[in-house]
Amino acid sequence: PELRDDDLKVVGDLGAGNGGTVNKVLHKETGLYMAKKLVLIDAKPAVRKQILRELQIMHHCSSEWIVSFYGAFLCDVHVGICMEYMDRRSLDGIYKKHGAVPIDIVGKISEAVLRGLTYLYDEHRIMHRDIKPSNILVNSKGDIKICDFGVSGELINSVANTFVGTSTYMSPERIQGGNYSVKSDIWSLGISLIELALGRFPFMNDDDQDDSDNDSDLEEMRRTITGRDDGQGRVVEDKKPKQDKPPKPPRQHQQAGGGGMNMSILDLLQHIVNEPAPRLVPAGKYPVEAEQFVEDCLRKEPGERKSPKELLLYPWIVDSRVTKDDLERWAISVD
Ligand code: ATP
Ligand code: MG
């Protein structure tokens, strides 16, 4: 029988993103906990019904690397999506609370995402489109699964802020508006892996800046990147001595998401396209196998980037000694 909103009782709050809010709910009949995501769809009823139809594909997505789907329904201006409840939630929350993820665990996260991507592509010919730490979920059994993949074209079109929410993990070719493929998901994976290993969003730190032209743009860049986010969304002033120049008016455009610097989204997109890809830093801190893997995820030319299947054969993945028990222990520790 189709799942209905009336069958569910809200028991908790799991978070909110650009596209919607997520609650922990109890399926009254079975006693099963689920995660219910409500996505606000500002569109005609016909479009909402189309989205609902497209979401039904998820009933056929069944893999240990993919968060299970229980059903979707219309609920006034929202589309409700019910999925498997993952009791350690997403990796962004985990690293923001517990700090950088140990590199060997990051290796297993890579493997899980690659297996999930391979499943989606081989079985359903779909790419994910939104790989990032908040869409990689963990439970206390040590399972790692991906969610929020782009099954419904109408849903992608209808969610108001898709661009802002996802742009910071976007590959250069996607930013430039060209054709893109699963290779674009691999770029997003590479960015996510660095973020988890470093415990911070990888773009822009002081070493990244070049001092070639000392014009006002560079000055403005400096100014915008020295105000750092404290992780609670507030911008913290740097301890550097204040300059005498009057401050410039704040930028009008959107701030980049992804939990990092106070850099405008346009600056960030330009940076991704024009500058060398980020790496695991400092060099030598992490195993060379991890460095190599990340570097090959972040080839700027999509043709040179590796595919999920190729990456699954990398020594970092194949030679990993992390067991399921280790993953479970780690998952239990990040409560
Ligand atoms: P964006 O809207 O930019 O994609 P997001 O992925 O954080 O960001 P949502 O997908 O709405 O936004 O999810 C909000 C939060 O809810 C996530 O960060 C995650 O921690 C939590 N969450 C989502 N799905 C589940 C789930 N199935 N089980 C447990 N927690 C979940
Ligand atoms: Mg999400």
UniProtKB/TrEMBL annotation:
Residues 8-317 form the Protein kinase domain. GO terms for molecular function: ATP binding; protein serine/threonine kinase activity; protein serine/threonine/tyrosine kinase activity. ATP binds at K37. Residues 223-247 have a biased composition (Basic and acidic residues). Keywords: ATP-binding, Kinase, Nucleotide-binding, Serine/threonine-protein kinase, Transferase. It comes from the Eukaryota. InterPro entries: Kinase-like_dom_sf, MAP_kinase_kinase, Prot_kinase_dom, Protein_kinase_ATP_BS, Ser/Thr_kinase_AS. Residues 223-261 are annotated as: Disordered. The keyword DNA repair does not apply. GO terms for biological process: MAPK cascade. Belongs to the protein kinase superfamily. STE Ser/Thr protein kinase family. MAP kinase kinase subfamily. This is Protein kinase domain-containing protein. It comes from Filobasidium floriforme. The lineage of its organism: Eukaryota, Fungi, Dikarya, Basidiomycota, Agaricomycotina.
